[in-house]
Design goal:
α8 runs antiparallel to α9 and α9 (about 260-270) runs antiparallel to α12 (about 340-350). The chain contains 15 helices and 20 strands. The protein has four domains: about 10-125, 2-Layer Sandwich (Methyltransferase, Cobalt-precorrin-4 Transmethylase, Domain 2), CATH 3.30.950; about 135-195, no CATH class; about 200-365, Heat Shock Protein 90 (2-Layer Sandwich); about 375-440, Orthogonal Bundle (Arc Repressor Mutant, subunit A), CATH 1.10.10. It is α+β, with helices and mostly antiparallel strands.
């Protein structure tokens, strides 16, 4: 039998490496909560054996007892491996974080790495999640602030998805069945999901280029429940990206430049897994070459997006009550599958996507296919013509009025007016307030 070190198995040549073994036990406990260790087997898997007597077993037990906090109670026994005596240590514990010689370690592959301050904080928060978990705390609003129609619609969706087996029974009773009440009081998860007193804001903007220099449009979505934020965010992106038409035998099909399902998955994940304790907003930024979706919620340390895409790493959601509720309505699938679903959808449609760990949170970047010159020109010409027509019809028209006529924001109007002035197609006569516009030439 050939042994191989892993995230849950450590091999030591002999008990002369007892200190290193204690560190390995702690790192495995902090990552997986249980594991095994052998003395008498080299790290390449070769069994070399060692002297094992009562003192040997007692020394191992004593070292573990004296140097690991909180205390654990492993099973330590003499075993015969390939004709040689070895020591087998089996251990487990659910009181993370664990410390060896006063320091915390985390298992990464077959290595033991010292835990950073932020990762240690995460372990402590996970240990005390029932007390400090944000969405499990009492809400800042009451039952009367819950949108009954939103709860009713959720129950309908969850029943159609086959993930609940009860109907709407009134707001309080239904939220209680969903686990969104505690001792008859509303939890923050319910506030975010079903109340307009949701503290989250989504900032959305369309930029003229590939940097945050000039924006054509900017919006802020707030004062609505999570489902409303998701709907408005999705509509905003769909409205501000390119679509092409494919004609079939009997009907036409509109195809987006970026898969809508992937975009929506990224947006719902950004709202589900954000750090609700952070005052930062969620962001949607539409550039000429890409669309970025940001959320304030640091990616788990010692893990990479690829771990969820290719290795099926299990997810520990930051807001489990919110995540569980969204799962029931089929707005998300099983925890940890979101990144893989985005990646697979984009790969199938030939769209490049990147997942970026940021200091302030996490970002999903969808790269837009390069639009044809003809498509770009037609879009610009259409907007320009509407603005020129509005000025011809009313030289005293304001930017706000033009925005209403054309269907873009005042900032977008300002951008296009500046371009037209620079091109010599229009001019403004008189003061900024009270002046008039003139169309020059035959534009």
């Amino acid at each position: 039998m050939k042994f191989r070190e892993s995230e849950v198995l450590e091999l030591k040549r002999s008990t002369s490496e007892l200190k290193e073994a204690v560190t390995s036990i702690v790192s495995i406990l902090n990552k997986h909560g249980a594991g095994e260790l052998y003395f008498g087997i080299r790290n390449d898997g070769e069994v070399v054996g060692q002297l094992v007597n009562e003192k040997t077993l007692r020394d191992v037990s004593q070292s573990i007892s004296d140097n690991i906090e909180p205390k654990i109670y492993p099973e330590i026994e003499k075993v015969n491996m390939e004709g040689s005596d070895c020591v087998h240590v089996s251990f487990s514990g659910d009181a993370r974080p664990y410390f060896a010689f006063g320091r915390a370690y985390m298992r990464v592959g077959d290595e033991d790495r010292q835990v950073s301050a932020s990762e240690l904080e995460r372990l402590i928060l996970h240990k005390n999640k029932d007390r400090v978990q944000w969405d499990n705390q009492l809400a800042d609003c009451s039952i009367k602030d819950i949108d009954a129609s939103a709860v009713r619609e959720f129950v309908k969706k969850a029943n159609l998805a086959g993930r609940i087996d009860f109907g709407f029974q009134g707001v309080e009773a239904t939220l209680g069945k969903l686990g969104l009440m505690k001792n008859g009081k509303l939890l923050r998860a319910a506030q975010v999901l079903f109340s307009s007193k949701n503290p989250v804001k989504v900032q959305a903007a369309v930029f003229a280029g590939v940097e945050k220099l000039t924006f054509i449009d900017i919006q802020q979505f707030e004062g609505q429940n999570l489902f409303g934020l998701l709907k408005d965010s999705a509509e905003y992106v769909k409205k501000n990206m390119a679509w092409r038409v494919k004609f079939g035998k009997l009907e036409r099909e509109e195809i987006p430049e970026i898969p809508v399902d992937a975009l929506r998955e990224a947006m719902v994940n950004s709202l589900c897994h954000r750090d609700y304790g952070s005052p930062q907003s969620n962001y949607i930024a539409v550039y000429q070459d890409r669309i970025e979706i940001d959320n304030p919620g640091a990616f788990p340390e010692n893990l990479e997006p690829e771990d969820y895409i290719f290795k099926n790493e299990p997810s520990i959601p930051r807001n489990p009550l919110i995540a569980e509720t969204l799962f029931r309505s089929k707005d998300i699938e099983r925890w940890g599958s979101g990144l893989k679903r985005i990646y697979d959808e984009c790969k199938e449609n030939g769209v490049k996507v990147e997942f970026r760990k940021m200091k302030s949170g996490f970002r999903v970047v969808f790269f837009r296919p390069k639009p044809s010159i003809e498509t770009t020109q037609k879009t610009t010409q259409k907007t320009t013509q509407k603005i020129l027509d509005a000025i011809r019809n009313n030289p005293l028209v304001s930017r706000k009025e033009i925005a209403g006529i054309v269907g873009i924001t005042e900032d977008g109007v300002k951008y296009h007016l500046a371009r037209l002035k620079k091109a010599g197609k229009i001019r403004h006569v008189g003061p900024d307030k009270g002046g008039r516009w003139e169309v020059l030439g035959r534009s």
